[in-house]
Amino acid sequence: MACKKETVPFSGTPEQEAALKKVIAELKDTKGALMPIMQQAQDIYGYLPIEVQTMISDETGIPLEKIYGVSTFYSQFALQPKGKYQISVCLGTACYVKGSGAIFSKLEELLGITNGECTPDGRFSLDSCRCVGACGLAPVMMINDEVYGRLTPDDIPGILAKYN
Ligand code: FES
């Protein structure tokens, strides 16, 4: 099974596991229960790592391959936790033609992670997004609620240095 590398160790608590088991016990005999179970599991853990998917598989009898397939097909499911600082680079058309691809590559290079991943210290996560409605500032990235525009790759180290 092709599985994305895990950059953050899983650290679920017994309380989270008990909450997940309760959800599964309530839903597992309902038709079409997998999606709601996965959604609630993500609410409990904040994301859906393979460890949580394995618990769902063990409790429901649904093959892990199927759960993994669903988790990678729907963008609402995150296989990695989000960082304390969530970086999102706009790859919408206006930003892309102004070079947001190079901004994204620079972030990958500096952080050592790629799309959908989180740094091992939990500080930064990196995602791409569609147009955020700030095309006049293209290329644009967001870090949490902060918008950065008219970026060049050389701006990125200085911006990251502000987030410690
Ligand atoms: S395309 Fe990036 S803000 Fe619109």
From TrEMBL:
UniProt keyword Repressor present:
no
A single Pfam family it belongs to is 2Fe-2S_thioredx
Keywords for this entry?
2Fe-2S, Iron, Iron-sulfur, Metal-binding
Q: Give the domain of life.
A: Bacteria
The prosthetic group or cofactor this protein requires is: [2Fe-2S] cluster
> What InterPro entries does the entry give?
NADP_DH_HndA-like, NuoE-like, NuoE_dom, NuoE_N, Thioredoxin-like_sf
Q: Which family does it belong to?
A: Belongs to the complex I 24 kDa subunit family.
The record's annotation in PANTHER family points to: NADH-QUINONE OXIDOREDUCTASE, E SUBUNIT, POTENTIAL NAD-REDUCING HYDROGENASE SUBUNIT
Would you tell me the protein name for this molecule?
NAD(P)H-dependent oxidoreductase subunit E
Q: Which organism is this protein's natural source?
A: Ventrimonas faecis
Q: Taxonomic classification, please?
A: Bacteria, Bacillati, Bacillota, Clostridia, Lachnospirales
